[in-house]
Amino acid sequence: MNIRIEIVCVSADGLEQRRQLSGFERQELAMETLGMSLAESKALLEGVQDFMVAQQVSENLEQRRACLHCGRRHTTKDSGSTPVNTLFGLVNVPNPRWNRCACQAEGPETFRPTSAWLQGRTSVEMLYLESKWASLIPFAKVADLLTEVLPIGDSANHESVRIHLQSTAERIEQELGRERQLNEYEGSEDDWEQQPLPDGPITVGIDGGYVRAAHKQGCFEVIAGKSVVAFRREDATEVPSAKCFGFVQTYDEKPRRRLWELMKSQGMQENQQVVFMSDGGEDVRRVQQYLHPFSEHLLDWFHITMRLTVLQQQTKGLQQERPETGADVAKQLESIKHLLWHGNTPEALERITGLSIDLSLIQAHSVLAAKVANGLAEFEIYIKNNCDFIPNFGERWRQGERISTAFVESTINQVVSRRFVKKQQMQWTHRGAHLLLQARTKVLNDELEGVFRRWYPRFRPQAA
């Protein structure tokens, strides 16, 4: 059996252009000969793409040939072509240079008519797929995947994938406005008074992670988090909106604007309650403070209990060495935890101070006591630095409100660890990590396709 495939292009005036693309021969039917093979389909798609591009450009050039002012045809200065990487192979796009019409006295002597639409040397959909997949898996794996399933030859490699992702991320960055100032309200007093009732509170959890720095410079911190809307006022059954974000603190010049735009994309209003929860780190707190007029800033319970758990583990060793003292220290730590749970920070600090004094009397004679004392001193500083952000956790819990950023821990794993740390031994520059985070969060938030559709209105028309 012989199969021939022919493609036909019918112009607006009814003229037909034909090209035979390929032929297939089949003998005995078997599972391995059923239908087209991957190699045959790639060759077919490459042929269709080449023919289609040639016809599209030829028709467009013919439409632009006549001068818009006098109707005379532009003469050709020289011919040429520009290679463009597409999903279905490298195509050479005709790109001639034409002389300026004699009726025009000003302007350049020659011009390229394709400059009206030919931007770059990579098709939009190719750029989209490279950016999307490169944010999820290593650059080299993306190149291998695309080469395996698409007829692109060797046009994709890890370096070109990296460059294309970063160009996409840089364009996203350029769309951010200026950095947001403290307690800034973007609107008039009338706008403030006319705001409708807001949706449920937005809870923003922020935490940090570390990635390997390039050139063996150790590690640097990456800030990531998640913003969650409690409920929608118009539709209480709607699944709450949750979006993640990330940035490199030492590189990003607009962290507050970035977080603000994220919350605005979730429908945030100026009169809506916003709760920021963090681990109490100075860098993280600086991003969220005074960002929203109705914001509340809390230290999350998860990080308090995590530090107390470490102290309790250290106390177990002390209990073996000095049972009575160790038991008393363990009891005091439970009391401190109880006080902090109920937001009684002043009394909790008094208990910490008293316990520190008791341990100081024996730490010279006990290494284990000194270890607990040092950990307790660090915990005391931590609580003092964040005492204004410790609420009554028990009351919030009873009211069904969030008390912990434990939900952010999975976000750190999703945004940072899976791509930068776990199983990936790559080293990163601050710029490279930051740009990858911007593309990755757009993909995880299911927003990248919308971004491309805004940049290129004819890209993947949205289904009705």
Word description of this protein:
- The chain is of the alpha+beta class and 464 residues long.
- Among the domains are: 2-118, no CATH class; 122-174 and 443-464; 303-389.
- Helix content is 45%, strand content 17%.
- The protein contains 15 helices and 12 strands.
- The protein has helices spanning 38-64, 124-134, 139-149, 158-174, 189-193, 255-265, 282-288, 301-321, 323-341, 345-360, 367-385, 393-398, 406-421, 430-444, 448-455, and strands at residues 2-10, 16-25, 76-78, 81-86, 89-94, 97-99, 110-111, 202-212, 219-229, 242-247, 274-278, 295-299.
- The protein has a 5-stranded mixed sheet with strand order 10-9-8-11-12, sandwiched between helices. The chain has a 3-stranded antiparallel sheet with strand order 3-6-7, with no helix packed on it.
- A hairpin with a 6-residue loop joins strand 8 (202-212) and strand 9 (219-229).
- Helix 4 crosses helix 14 (430-444), helix 8 (301-321) packs antiparallel against helix 11 (367-385) and helix 9 (323-341) runs antiparallel to helix 10.
- The mean pLDDT is 87.
What is the 3D shape?
elongated
How far is the N terminus from the C terminus?
Answer: 42 Å
Content of β-strand: 15-25%
Please report the total strand number as a whole number.
12
How helix-rich are the residues, as a percent range?
40-55%
Major sheet characteristics: 5 strands, mixed
Mean pLDDT reading: 87
As laid out across the biggest beta sheet, the strand order is 10-9-8-11-12
Which residues form runs of ≥5 with pLDDT under 50?
none
